[in-house]
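Task card 7
Instruction: Convert sequence to structure tokens.
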Amino acid sequence: MKTTWYLNGLSCANCALKIEAELQDHPSIERALVDPVQAKLVVWSEAAIEASMIEDIVHRHESHVEVRREALERESIPIPWLLLGSIALFIASFLLDGTWKTVFALGAYALGGHRVIPAAFRTLFTRDIFNENFLMTLATFGAIYLGEFAEAAAVMLFFETGEYFQDLAVERSKKSISALMDLRPDRARVERNGEIFDVEPSAVAVGETLLVAPGERVAIDSVVLEGNTTLDTSSMSGESMPVAVHEGSEVLSGSINRTHAVKLKTVKTYGDSALARVLDMVENASLKKAPTERFITRFARYYTPVVVAVALLLVLVPSVVFSQPFETWLYRALIFLVVSCPCALVVSIPLAFFAGIGSASAHGILIKSGSDLEMLASVEVVGLDKTGTLTEGRFALQEIRSEPGIDAQEMLELAAYAESLSTHPIAESLVKAYGEEIDHLRLSSMGEVSGAGVYAEVDGRNVRVGKSAFVGAEENLPGIHISVDGRYWGSFFIEDALKKSAPETVRQLKKMGKKLMLLSGDTPVHVEAVAEHLGIPSYHGGLLPDEKVHLIEDASKEQKVLFVGDGINDAPVLAAADVGVAMGGIGSDAAMEAADIVLISDEIDKLPLAFDISRRTKSILMQNIVFAIGIKLLVMGLGAAGFANMWLAVFADVGVALLAVLNSLRIFLQTPKNIKN
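Output:
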């Protein structure tokens, strides 16, 4: 069974990793994952887990954390009055001399360390001795032993100040990113037996009637029962254009009613609706760790003990073996203790993935995990389905070729009248292209010859529409043909229309250096026509689902492959690709299960943006890793050589962590660049 716990007050990302590791080792627990960004713990076990057991393990690492089964409202981080008082005492110490200078410096140290020092002593009775509180306390105690009272106070103050601003930056980022996903309606207005009730969305059954006023969010997937209005679907699809709906129109939950009050009939429960499924996907995405996150977890497990061991050798070997001054090498060793916590990486890496996934979701791109986001940045080959992905999935008139002296609009009008009572998709496309209301009083003597075409009298004129031979022209000519009173008028070319976003999307993908391949079950001649029109060099038509899978598997032997499909018929190939992308699939169970990424809208133009977000995320991840590790190694090297002090060491710890956190937020805070230019 799966249980979720919220760790209210958890701010130490390194401690979160240690909590996760201890839970993983517990015999009653099959699997445990801690999300340090959302302060959430998910546990899988055969039997129910007691809250006291979770609390005991959490409190061994973070005694102040409150373990809860439900999330609390985010509160503002309180003003650190004791820290401000400590800073005042520290500044005052520089205005004094002698004993009072020492007293004020130690007072500043005690106030500044009011949280760190007690926490450090509590860890003496746990197995988690290598935590930042204990190591910072040990380092500053060493400075006091050496008589460096001002430096001890400064190190503690800088450490606490850096921690405060780091917590502030992380908390604000959590609020900003979570706001993208904070779409849950608190209440739904439901009509029951002529009365209106405000209820929890989860209490609404399938088939009930909802009332949605302008400005309100639709809570549950529904159809319009009464009225018409326009909807803002941007929070779900990322599209800014309003969508007009009327009686019978489908309405996805999460949409905002903009113009008129409407009555809706629910077609799903709240838990099965699009909004609830999207929120669940995004919120749980950070629990699925990417390769970079797993590397940082392994790195953090060994980094601190190794640095502490080097610090111990640094003080013992020169002073004991080579009879060097003990105090000199002790001070240099203390620098190692200050930079021994890997927090810069442990907190900034998950935050970068969280920001990337949140940024993508704001644009209607649902990425299931950090692993999928990271893999997306490595994709070199993009496989595309045709029907429903690059094309509309329905026939549309593309071209009219009329004979000399024949008016093309009149030709279309007569063809639409002749086809008006046929249910064939080609007939419907001609009527739709005509766009005018059909006056059936103008029609007589209508008929249809199966597999050939239709005939009718329109205003007393004999009209035939169908294959070339049926209208009296040469056999097997391409297109749909028309003759009037025995005279050949011309032909119509009707195809599955390209989506408006397809040409520009293909251009952008090619500009990004992606290799494109078109894979479709449609006839080879139609696939070739689409490929040539869009400039896709590699294409295959007439494919069965298993043949698509084989082609994707062959391509993925040498390069990372992404495949975009409709998420229903293409479920096998979506699963076979390194990254599967389903389009417009939020209402489809097959899409949600088989795909790694879901584009909520039916347009493919979000795909280049998804690549751009993944690329920027990976770039910032590498910047954080190189910057954090590089600065720490540099300061340790300078410290061992005697060219660094503890002030610089504190910057290498909390300063670098704060900068890495702020760098991670660029993924979210930066407006996605205009990749069309």
